[in-house]
Amino acid sequence: MLATLNLERNKIGDFGAQCLADVLRKSKTITTLNLQSNQIGQDGVRYISDALEHNPILVTLDLGYNQIGDIGAQYLADVLKNNKILTKLNLNVNQIGDDGAQQLVFALSENTTLLTLALIGNNITPQQMCDWEDEVERIELYAHYPSDCSPDCEYGCYTDSGSD
């Protein structure tokens, strides 16, 4: 049985994401999916998000180093509101700004299963992270390296001790 599917750096793009979403909808064994560095944009993540609505088993999704932007973040936020399976989501370096990140954070108020959300290397302001601290205190949220953080608020700062 295939439990982990690592397609990192395969340049599947939006079309490949669409094909993969068809497989993901039917999968009863894939618990970890790594799609890091695959040139996936907002259209590709829309297909993957739709598949997540029908997938009862995926617990880890790595979409780091793609180009989903704020619209793609919104697609994932919509899924997170109802998803009760996913525990780890990596969206590092995805051109997500404050608007997209805010949608993800708001979705977490309805989601009690996501434990880790990685947003490092996006266009999220440190002050925005501090504003969300109370809303997402139950999860590990990484959005900035320590050099980008304010001494007044270190919430959302990545440290080696808290993430892999």
UniProtKB/TrEMBL annotation:
The keyword Cytoplasm does not apply. The keyword Repeat applies. GO terms for molecular function: GTPase activator activity; small GTPase binding. PANTHER family: RAN GTPASE-ACTIVATING PROTEIN 1 (PTHR24113). One of its GO terms (biological process) is nucleocytoplasmic transport. It comes from the Eukaryota. Keywords: GTPase activation, Leucine-rich repeat, Repeat. GO terms for cellular component: cytosol; nucleus; perinuclear region of cytoplasm. InterPro entries: Leu-rich_rpt, LRR_dom_sf, RanGap. It comes from Rotaria socialis. This is Uncharacterized protein. Pfam families: LRR_6 (PF13516).
